[in-house]
Amino acid sequence: MPSEPPVRVDFFSCKPYDRRYFETANHGNEVALHFHEFRLTPDTLHTLEAPDTLCVFVNDVVNSDVIDYLVARGTKHIALRCAGFNNVDINHARACHLPVSRVPAYSPQAVAEHTFALIMTLNRRLHKAYNRVRENNFSLEGLLGFNLHGKTLGVIGTGKIGRSVVNIARGFGCDVLCYDPNPDPSLATKGVMYTSLEQLLQRSDIVSLHCPLTRDTYHMINEHTLASMKPGVMLINTSRGGLVDTQAVIGALKRGHVGYLGLDVYEMESELFFEDKSLNIIQDDVFERLSTFPNVLITGHQGFFTHEALQQIADVTLSNIIAAGQQRFDPTYFLSPGAEQ
């Protein structure tokens, strides 16, 4: 009997580094890999042939129209190669009995360490110092920072990444306040205090976001919550862009209420991030205004971008694809089960 052909997987928003890691992880050629560099949107659906599995990233659009198109063509699985799933209509996928998997934890230390890279760079103005020294300017004027030791860091969301941020913060000697609807009792042994969101915002010198984007968390940082923070607060977002109302934070920056802003994500990033726009005129006026502030540091969604994280993403995603083919739907990885469940 001839063996069955391997599962066909179409990847979207796939860069050369994704291809390298997935081809290495697919050492047994368990699946047939087909890579597309462009994003999946309702306008690019026509490029699909008949993939068994669709593999997407954070800025691909998998709404009800896309899901209906996939189901009609026999697609059996949507594999997210990321933790967040706000770009997928999970309820519609579930109604269509279309399994959706994700990578719930890929090197949480990668994002946590990038969080502190933003904190330290903003605080000690390393990006400005680097440029000065390259121009033989060794003046220290305008580069004054503050000690992290003894400062209060507010961590919103204490999942794996949030817990990693707490561990690093304690190493710096920070006092740590946490907010999460589902507190982690193990953090109490590390001298960490859970509090209300209101108390955290009022008492923290640095506020760092590490929660998923949902209806409840959309624009949780807004004009009202910004006003409740300390004057000169440092705000860091390495989670999801939609957690922050960008217009509101621009207003707080203009008033001087927000003293530092570090972003690895942006709510309209899908039209910008992961692409080389260096020769383009950026049409996003909000982003352009945001980038003019001297106390704002933006990176292009690179918090996850380490060797270890990419390795884990490839390994777990391929394992999910194989599991879906065998009708195994571990709730740790699958947000939407198969038809038999």
Major sheet: arrangement of strands: 8-7-6-9-10-11-12
Biggest sheet overview: 7 strands, parallel
Give the helix/strand class.
alpha/beta
Number of strands: 13
Rg, Cα atoms, Å: 22 Å
Description:
33% of the residues lie in helices and 16% in strands. The two termini are 31 Å apart. The protein has a 7-stranded parallel beta sheet with strand order 8-7-6-9-10-11-12, sandwiched between helices. The protein has 11 helices and 13 strands. The protein is globular, with a radius of gyration of 22 Å. The chain has 341 residues and is of the alpha/beta class.
Short characterization:
The protein has helices spanning 16-25, 64-72, 90-95, 108-124, 126-134, 160-172, 197-203, 223-227, 246-255, 285-290, 307-325, and strands at residues 7-11, 31-35, 53-56, 77-80, 100-101, 152-156, 175-179, 193-194, 206-209, 233-237, 258-263, 296-298, 334-336.
List the helices and strands and how they pair.
Blueprint: E1 7-11, H1 16-25, E2 31-35, E3 53-56, H2 64-72, E4 77-80, H3 90-95, E5 100-101, H4 108-124, H5 126-134, E6 152-156, H6 160-172, E7 175-179, E8 193-194, H7 197-203, E9 206-209, H8 223-227, E10 233-237, H9 246-255, E11 258-263, H10 285-290, E12 296-298, H11 307-325, E13 334-336
Parallel strand pairs: 1-2, 1-3, 3-4, 4-5, 6-7, 6-9, 7-8, 9-10, 10-11, 11-12
Antiparallel strand pairs: 5-13
